[in-house]
Amino acid sequence: MSSSVKKVPFWAVERWLSVVLFLGVWELAPRAGGLLEVFIAPPSVVVNVLLEMIREDLLPGHVLVSLGRAAAGFVAAALLAVPLGFLLGSGFRTFERLVTPLLRFFAQLNPFSLFPLFILIFGIGELSKGTMIFWVCIWPILFNTINGVKEIDPLLVKSARSMGTGICTLFFRVILPAALPGIFTGLKMGAGTAFFMLIAAEMIGASRGLGWLVWNAQTNFQMPQLFAATVVISVLGLILQWLFVLIEGKLLGWRENVVH
Which of 130, 178, 220, 256 is the most buried (most CB within 10 A)? Predict the structure, then answer.
């Protein structure tokens, strides 16, 4: 009897080869001694620190605090930016030409330079951090929504109107699905920006959160904790990206059928 062994595709090995090599170098380099041993914590040590933080119920609390802050600012930005994007991208051309240059100027302002202003106005608590997240999220969502609405084929709208389609049905069955790719691109960009900007915001005037973990570990020169927090931030970023890819496939899968 001949047993058939299922071969692993080369692309699957190639995809993870760089990760394995990186982890191997990361593990061995600090153990060589010198400055690397002082400033770099190997993966085995980082994993032990993460497990210890989980056992002591420290890490889940910081993760939940950071995700809650990011979600609050992101949702508030989306609730304002999407309707405003439909308003500016539809029939109000004069209003759009008046306000777009001002909006683009605001979008170019560095959020870090505005953070002292947010603290001055809203204090050093949660509101200033939420405002900062709101500020960086609103612009990609707004401008991509505007572009998504503008790229709707006018023939679709005319055809629906010619068949006597009502306003609500026209919006939810024609306009919204046609603009959804642009809106989703803005939401995806805004979510990624929200999370990583939050980490920077939590380094200033916070007592909890992943950003505070990084800042506290750096201040106390706790390199294993610093690397552990950085790894958690990177993993959460990858999970966030994977979730948006999954949602995009569910909501916008019809585009592939249209193209093909």
Answer: 130
Place of tokens 């999970």: 239
Residue 213 within any structural domain of the chain: yes
Residue-number span of the structural domain to which 64 is assigned: 43-259
Residue 15 lies in a domain: no
The counts of H helices and E strands in the chain are 13, 0
Name the pLDDT band for 57 (thresholds 50, 70, 90). Answer: confident
What the block records as the tokens of 213 is 């973990």
Higher pLDDT, 227 or 254: 227
Q: Alpha-carbon distance 83 to 142, whole Å?
A: 9
CATH of the domain at 235: 1.10.3720.10
Total count of domains within the chain: 1
152: left (phi over 0), alpha (psi -120 to 50) or beta: beta
Asked whether the beta carbons of 65 and 182 are under 8 A apart, the reply is no
